[in-house]
Amino acid sequence: MTQPADRPLVSVIVACFNAAAYLRAAVSSALDQSLREIEVIIVDDGSTDGSQAIAKELAATDHRVRLYRMDSNGGPAAARNRGFDLAQGRFVAILDSDDLYHPERLKRLVAVCDAVEADMIADDLIIFDDADQTPPTGFFAAPRSKRGDWVSLAGYFRESVLYGRAPNLGFLKPLIRLDLIRDHGIRYDERLRIAEDDDLIIQLLRAGARYRTVAEAGYFYRKHGASISHRLSLANIEAMVLAGERLAADLRGAPADVRRALARRNRALRNSRDFTLTIEALKTRRLAGAAATAIRHPGLLPLFRMPVAAKLRSLLNRKADEAPPRSAPAACFISNQRIAGATNGSSAYLIDLARAARTAGYAPHLVQPSPALFGRTPFFRLRPEMQVFASHHLRGGWRIGAWMIARDPHVWANATIGIVRRTARRFGIDALWTIDRPAPYAVTAPWTKADQLFVTAHARPKADIMIADYMFLARAFPYAARPDAATAIVMHDLFHARSDGFAATGDRDSVAGISRDSELALLGRADAVIAIQAAEAGFVRRALPHSAVVLAPMAAHPVEAAQPGLSDRLLFVGSNTAPNVHGLRWFIETVWPDLHAARPGVVLDVAGAVAAAFPAGGPEGVVFHGLVDDLAPFYARAGVVISPLLHGSGLKIKLIEALARGKATVATAVTLQGVEETAGPAVARADDSPAFLAAILQLIDSDEARGALAERALTTARVHFSPDACYQSFREWLAGTSAARPPHSNEEARLCA
Fold it and tell me: At what angle do helices 76-86 and 196-206 cross, to 10 degrees?
């Protein structure tokens, strides 16, 4: 179906009554949709706070926003009916003025709705507490939470029972074809102040609408003290009972399964009315009346589980209620790296950024939503530098002292299998079952609902600023349900450039292959991109002119004096990623044989997790040490540090570390990428096997040449890579963001009142 150029695809209707605290965030979440062909119709239902002023401002700022003011307060049903009258889209979607949309919600729902030829479609909810006193939850239960399903009229009655134990589908906010509403003259029942959405869905199903659900969560349902859906007065429940009786009369001739399901639903409504009467009697100390109602209607007794549970939650959360307010703004780092300390370059870089945030007046917090980061390591020790984080939440892990321990027994089983395989290989057993298959790279691990809820639970209260560690974690931003928060992505690498480099040599990246457009789409989700080197910062500025780009090179922590080291010791430091593995393999295969023949006494020390990619070890003179607690003695004795990288992007952190240690270094142009002008004079560059061999021989044969290059390296680190120089722009961005951030939640309501 072709969409007229001047007609929006979706009309989002926002009924608003005294919602100044939340309206801006709600409407912004609609305007920020990846589906741009929308209109937002704000129907102000007689607000007396600052809602109208905010709505006017939003309408003046974005031409897609329209404001209509009701003459008097008629309730959400009347306001939404007026929205139906004004809507011009092919679809309509309801957004409560205190709720939020995921940025991909409308695009995803429209696509599925058209693909399966549905008339209305709803997704899962993430229900969160505005006061962060109770943990967030998803709404759907299995199997609906795992896959989409069709909803019939009988099925809807079965799954929309008030106070039932199953999720009540009446809470959903479906996308609906507007023509269906108008063709059948369907309207909200303006007699209902509660459950008006439920009544509308029933009308649509009775009209023959095909109703589909999808498992993805795209609607953020905010619970707070002013939510009318949580205030079920006796008048409201009486109106719902009457509506149920009218519906039963209308459906006398319906199929038996529909009538049975509706009868059960109506019994639940009557029990809920009696329960409300009993609670009212208890509140006014009419104990005899409460007891009499309970005896006459025993079906209401199970409903008392709700106030008991609420009281228990209140007692459990009393300590949180009394917690003092935070004195400093919070910067929430969201990462799926296994960060135990400054044990590798990318972890050290993130810890440095957290230190810079603390210097700028922010309390840094670390949230890690994916247990995949454990890989096949069932436990690891957190080093002292992790104390820079004010809090650390890792899903799927127990924190016991300085140790993080995996809860998933599969991690322990896989670790055991790995040990068995390595042991078998040491004894010379060469079979398919002894092949060690690396665990998936956690940074790009599939995103689950449990991950999403973990972000909502732990990032939301600490997300004045959100910083995603790698672009892949940009998907976490919406689930913090904090549209007021500034966002940034720590880029680390330009991944499509890595992918192109690997493709040119027929190799494969260990992290992820991604296209230029896909990478830019992810980077564009943040307000700012933190680039680790100048060339990549320039690329992002050109490609994403509307994003802030913060250049923050890896800072060095220089030693006091240059370390020429021993002439017969080389050092390679690297994690188990494709650039390190391929570069080291190239060096061992093409450079080492000639070097070892020319200088038989030379030893190459290899430190870091890259050792896992060489299970059989190396040739004579190459020693794999694996992960080590302290690299200092390795650097001290090394005469030459090598960095023979052939692929990759970003700033090669191992290069900056070698400069800061005052080491003579032989490196390729790939290693020097982005810092050629500053670091180039302090490094011996070599891009092929003969040149690499010649550079190493010159340095190990001449103490003077080695010492001079080591001195230049240390001077370069001090001048160009000090923490003050490297992180100044990042600290300035933090300061500017703090000053520009709009007032949040109830504070905005106070200012607008």
Answer: 50
Is residue 232 a contact partner of residue 268, using CB atoms and an 8 Å limit? no
Residues 336 and 469 in one domain: yes
Cα 72 → chain centroid: 41
| Same-domain pairing of 47 and 99 | yes
Q: Are 334 and 470 a contacting pair, CB within 8 Å?
A: no
Q: Are strands 175-177 and 120-129 parallel, antiparallel or unpaired?
A: antiparallel
Are 297 and 274 within 8 A, CB to CB? Answer: yes
Sign of CA dihedral 295, 301, 307, 309: positive
What amino acid is encoded at 98 in this protein?
D
Pick the closest to residue 109 from 97, 94, 98, 87 (CA basis): 94
Q: How many CB atoms lie within 10 A of CB 76?
A: 24
Residue 265: alpha-carbon gap to chain centroid: 38
Centre a 10 Å sphere on the Cβ of residue 412 and count the other Cβ atoms it contains: 16
Residues 287 and 401 grouped into a single domain: no
Alpha-helical runs (H) found in 599-702: 632-637, 653-660, 669-672, 676-679, 689-701
Q: What is the CATH number of the domain that holds 542?
A: 3.40.50
Tokens 């309970």 sit on residue: 294
Q: Do 337 and 273 share a domain, yes or no? A: no
190 and 50 share one domain: yes
Its domain, for residue 346, covers 330-548
CATH of the domain at 199: 3.90.550.10
User: In this structure, what are the phi and psi dihedrals at residue 32, rounded to the nearest 5 degrees?
Assistant: -85, 10
Retrieve residue 118's tokens.
């549905």
- State the Cα–Cα distance between residues 579 and 574, nearest whole angstrom: 9
Our count of domains for the chain comes to 4
- Closest of 634, 570, 621 to residue 593, by C-alpha: 621
CA distances in angstroms from 657 to 641, 662, 679, listed in the order given: 10, 9, 12
pLDDT (tens digit, 9 = 90+) per residue, 16-52?
A: 999 999 999 999 999 999 999 999 999 999 999 999 9
Per-residue pLDDT of 638-688, as tens digits, reads 999 999 999 864 457 789 899 999 999 999 999 998 788 889 999 999 999
Write the DSSP symbol of residue 193. S
3-state secondary structure (DSSP) of residue 681: helix
- pTM > 0.70: yes
Assigned token pair, 488: 């940034």
